[in-house]
Specification:
Layout (H helix, E strand, L loop, with lengths): L1 E6 L2 H18 L4 E6 L8 H13 L3 E4 L5 H11 L3 E4 L4 H12 L3 E5 L14 H4 L1 H18 L3 H14 L17 E4 L2 H11 L6 E3 L8 H5 L4 E7 L11 H15 L4 E5 L6 H8 L5 E4 L5 E6 L4 H5 L6 E4 L8 H4 L5 E2 L2 H10 L8
Helix pairs in contact: 1-2, 3-4, 4-6, 6-7, 10-11
Length: 360
């Protein structure tokens, strides 16, 4: 059996899809795989990316970079590789393109949910100018997809842009097509079965519920000694264009006050975080540390990171700060996380918080 695993960059391939390949290899004697990066990651740390490629190669798999969204090039690549299946790590316009080409070749397609998906994210208007190169690439991907599924490009592209800008559903649009959907989609719960059905038109019987992949970290984290620390779980707010750099700097400046109320303030970096942003603000603060591993902290602070749910199995004190222009998504409001709007509220909470561990 041979599989192709596809994602935006090597970092995400190694984090989310390599563990799946390892499980498959344990159950299939002649299993082989090629990991394909589209090189569309918003902000790639060269060191993390290089390490991720090494992890893939050391595991006995091949790594390839296929940056074009040209239908003929992708089709020829797939014919050469001759896979039994494609496994995608998210559901973006270029994932749908690869799905449609694989389906035209009779290749079975699987997908895995990428984090705790939300109805919509809110982009800063300037992002489309600052990332003009990426916008053009995605436009070409949409054009190639329209060509592959034989649908009018102008209408498809309008519906795609409306979805990106406003978060409208893709169900009952030209992108709601059997040729663009995986044969089997692995999602996180019954809630998400309904979410994917409503948002993207996935048939209910094509989805299977699985445990969120980040939950596999919990046992390992609990073995570490818990310290009186606050962990700020970062997101790619600036890197993805959801917040201006100046507004984000102001937010981080306010967090210096929080750092003064705990023994240690740990910045948990997103795989695609621009680490320099945090050093710019926090390098003068002695009790701030940076990590890409998940620490065992007393408090966790984030906005709407999927890791909030992982943290909730480790601490009773998972704090969400709602940012202006970024309303807390429904999936996080359904949980019992306290939601605050400013640093004063967060510090008051820390002062009176119950530091007992969750009853697992």
């Amino acid at each position: 059996m041979k599989g192709i695993f596809f994602d935006a960059c090597a970092t995400m391939l190694a984090k989310n899809l390599l563990p799946i390949a390892k499980v498959m290899s344990e159950n299939e004697v002649n299993f082989s795989a090629t990991f394909v990066s589209a090189q569309t990651g918003g902000n790639i740390d060269p060191r993390v990316e290089s390490d991720s490629i090494k992890k893939i190669n050391v595991s006995g798999y091949k790594y390839e970079s296929v940056t074009t969204f040209n239908v003929s090039v992708i089709m020829n690549f797939l014919k050469t590789e001759n896979p039994d299946f494609l496994f995608i790590g998210a559901y973006r316009i270029y994932d749908q393109l690869w799905v449609s080409i694989c389906k035209s070749l009779g290749v079975k397609v699987f997908s895995q949910q990428h984090g705790f998906e939300v109805e919509s994210v809110y982009y800063h208007p300037n992002v489309f100018y600052k990332k003009a190169g990426k916008v053009l690439r995605l436009t070409y991907a949409a054009y190639s997809l329209a060509k592959t599924i034989k649908r009018p490009f102008v209408i498809l592209y309008f519906q795609y842009c409306r979805y990106i800008l406003t978060g409208t559903s893709l169900a009952n649009t030209l992108l709601d097509n059997t040729m663009t959907r995986p044969d089997v989609a692995f999602v996180y719960s019954q809630f998400y079965k309904k979410f994917w059905n409503k948002k993207y038109g996935f048939p209910m019987d094509s989805m299977q519920a699985i445990t969120p992949t980040d939950f596999s970290l919990i046992k390992k984290i609990l073995k570490k000694k818990q310290e009186n620390t606050l962990c700020y779980i970062t997101q790619t707010l600036v890197e993805d264009g959801r917040m201006s750099i100046n507004k984000f700097y102001s937010l981080l400046e306010s967090y210096k006050t929080i750092a003064s109320h705990v023994d240690k303030f740990i910045v948990k970096l997103h795989p695609q975080a621009n680490e320099d942003i945090y050093h710019e603000i926090f390098d003068t603060v002695k009790n701030v540390e940076y990590t890409r591993e998940f620490p065992h902290s007393t408090y966790y602070l984030t906005h709407y990171s999927s890791l909030a749910y992982t943290a909730s199995f480790i601490s009773n004190n998972v704090i969400l700060q709602e940012l202006s222009g970024h309303p807390t998504p429904e999936i996080f409001r359904k949980a019992s996380f306290p939601i605050f709007h400013n640093v004063t509220e967060i510090i008051d909470y820390i002062k009176r918080a119950d530091v007992s561990k969750p009853n697992l």
